[in-house]
Amino acid sequence: MGLFDKIKNAFSKEKEAEKTTEEIQEEAQKESEELQDEANQIQSDANKLEAEFQNEQAEEKQNEADQLYEQADEVKETVQPIEPVENKPVEEEINSQEKYEKGLIKTRKTFKDRMNELFANFRSVDEDFFEEVEETLIGADVGFETSMKIADELRQEVKLKNAKKPAAVQNAIIEKLVDLYEAEGIDEVNTINYQNDGLTVLLFVGVNGTGKTTSIGKLAHQLKQEGKKVLLAAADTFRAGAIDQLVVWGERSEVEVVHGKAGGDPAAVVYDAMIRAKAEEVDILLVDTAGRLQNKVNLMNELDKINRVIKREDPSAPHEVLLVVDATTGQNAMNQAKQFKETTDVTGLVLTKLDGTAKGGIVLAIRNELHLPVKLVGLGEGIDDLETFDPNQFVVGLFKGLLQEE
Ligand SMILES: Nc1nc2c(ncn2[C@@H]2O[C@H](COP(=O)(O)OP(=O)(O)OP(=O)(O)O)[C@@H](O)[C@H]2O)c(=O)[nH]1
Ligand SMILES: [Mg+2]
Q: Where are the alpha helices (DSSP H) in 104-143?
């Protein structure tokens, strides 16, 4: 075959191939259409069947519902109306436990992380391990002495019980912390010494920025809500803006504020407030004081003077001298409390800003080492974020979720 033939041949084969492709495509198209028809038919049959089935089911459900309605009607006829139950206290308790749990999230997480770290490195319960326990607890702000004490007790218990499992040891640490906290608090009065009859005077002291004015504002609001007659005294005349800040809180909580001029004598303001409180039969007078003066000696002298003025007008007052400390400062708060305790008759603590810190463990240190009862805790900046301190709710909030299955 010549070249041309070859080309021709090739061409005609190509044509043939084309034709075949066309034919194949046509056939395929036809086949696909047939299949499509078949599929449509099946789909429509299926739809019919499903609809029938659903109708049947719907009917069944309707019957069931009718029966239930009938039963419900029967029950309703036999049920007597129930008196509404006074459930407010329970609600309040739940809310405050929730507040503690929320406010202590950061502390709890840090505790958990530290525990996990401790047990991740934990191979055997030897002296190194106990030293790590001490460090972990000190790091969790539960206090130096407390940490040593817990580690010592743990040494003995591990020896005695031959405890080896990490879970058992972790639980023992928490158990010891809680036990110690409970034992140290046995004589502690965590409630505020409100007078049943007559005036209650609460004096708030503490270094600047700890939350005195804010706590007074929140407490004024709470007491006012409870129907008490409340008066505030703006005895921080030193810091610019301090008087206005208290006045704003007074407006917010709808209570009166006694104040003088900025730079005036704080004791004079307190005197005016005492006279007015007595004349107007106020239930509770809250006295705000300066957090900073020219120096510490001045501050202490001034607090002393304020105290004397209050006592002169009412020998039983002040009924509490509440030292406000900022929990976020940890050990610093402890030191402030120690210093104030030496120079002033502090009767209790207001521990603020627990919400913003991982240092909630400080409550254990305060109780075990300072022996000053915490009376109020600040769990946020809002007007409702002040709680009377509940030691048990606090500890539940602190250690919740840290116990392990043994
Ligand atoms: N997150 C949080 N912030 C708080 C709490 N209590 C107070 N604060 C904030 O702490 C800051 C200082 O509060 P103040 O009440 O002005 O403190 P102070 O002790 O009166 O300060 P001085 O008047 O300067 O002595 C404010 O920004 C408050 O909103 C709390 O419980 N939680
Ligand atoms: Mg203030």
A: 105-120, 127-139
Among 203, 352, 384, which residue has the most ligand 1 atoms within 8 Å of its CB, making it the best to mutate? 352
pLDDT tens by residue, 188-218: 999 999 999 999 999 999 999 999 999 999 9
User: Strand runs (DSSP E) across 186-229, as ranges?
Assistant: 200-205
Q: Is 330 in the pocket of ligand 1 (CB under 6 A)?
A: no
How far is it, in rounded angstroms, from Cα 291 to Cα 211? 10
Contact 322, 348 (CB under 8 A): yes
Cβ partners under 8 Å of residue 146, min gap 6: 137, 177, 180, 364, 365, 368, 369
Does any ligand 1 atom lie closer than 6 A to the CB of residue 210? yes
Give 256's strand partners.
231
Query: Which ligand gives the minimal distance to the CA of 293?
Result: 1
Using an 8 Å Cβ cutoff, are 350 and 325 in contact? yes
Non-local (6+) Cβ contacts of 362 within 8 A are 141, 142, 143, 327, 330, 333, 334, 351
Asked whether residue 359 carries a pLDDT value surpassing 90, the answer given is no
Report how far residue 266's alpha carbon sits from residue 233's, in angstroms, rounded to the nearest whole number. Answer: 9
pLDDT, tens only, 368-391: 998 999 999 998 899 999 999 988
Residue 383 CA: distances (Å) to CA of 26, 188, 203, 220, 386? 81, 27, 20, 10, 7
